[in-house]
Design brief:
- This protein is of the alpha/beta class.
- It has one domain: STAS domain (Transcription Regulator spoIIAA, 2-Layer Sandwich).
- The protein contains 5 helices and 5 strands.
- It has a 5-stranded mixed sheet.
- Helix 3 links the parallel strand 4 (78-81) and strand 5 (102-103).
- Helix 1 (29-40) runs parallel beside helix 2 (58-73).
- The longest helix has 16 residues, at 58-73.
């Protein structure tokens, strides 16, 4: 018998992270599909982390495709994070990688999501225009930006 599917949802300010672990197949997909539909209807972008998924079949891919369509209908997007070669291969074979952005790491996925929304990724600088002359004189040497969490 396969591993049960665990779904953990973490709501952030600009997105919802859905972490999946176990097997996504015909026996476990109903709960996932229902959860993704409800989240997609909120109109906030979704990031599905599949790194702990040990198996996914066509039913699981269908649930992700459905969530992507629903998210788009509500003005948001679905991004998928997965480093597993087998899963990434399924996305390529089915063409789903052309409909759902696929990232290797969570940081890469969040960066792609931020770029899609026209925002700088968390923890990155974004140049917004030339410095004004009075800014340069008030702060002749720029201070280093501390790493996140400091």
């Amino acid at each position: 018998m396969g591993k049960a599917l665990t779904i953990r949802v973490c709501r952030e300010a600009d997105y919802v992270l859905v972490r999946l672990a176990g097997e996504v197949d015909i026996a476990t997909v109903a709960g996932l599909r229902e959860r993704l539909r409800a989240l997609a209807a909120d109109g906030i972008s979704l990031v599905a982390d599949l790194d702990q998924v040990t198996f996914i079949d066509a039913a699981g891919l269908g649930a992700l495709a459905d969530a992507a369509v629903r998210a788009a209908a509500h003005g948001s997007r679905l991004h998928v994070v997965c480093a597993r070669h087998q899963t990434r291969r399924l996305f390529r074979i089915t063409g789903l990688d052309r409909r759902i952005p696929l990232a290797t790491t969570l940081a890469e996925g969040l960066g792609a999501l931020a770029r899609a929304r026209g925002k700088a990724p968390v923890g990155c600088e974004r140049h917004v225009g030339p410095a004004r002359r009075d800014d340069l004189q008030a702060n002749p040497r720029p201070r280093p930006i501390p790493p996140p969490g400091d």
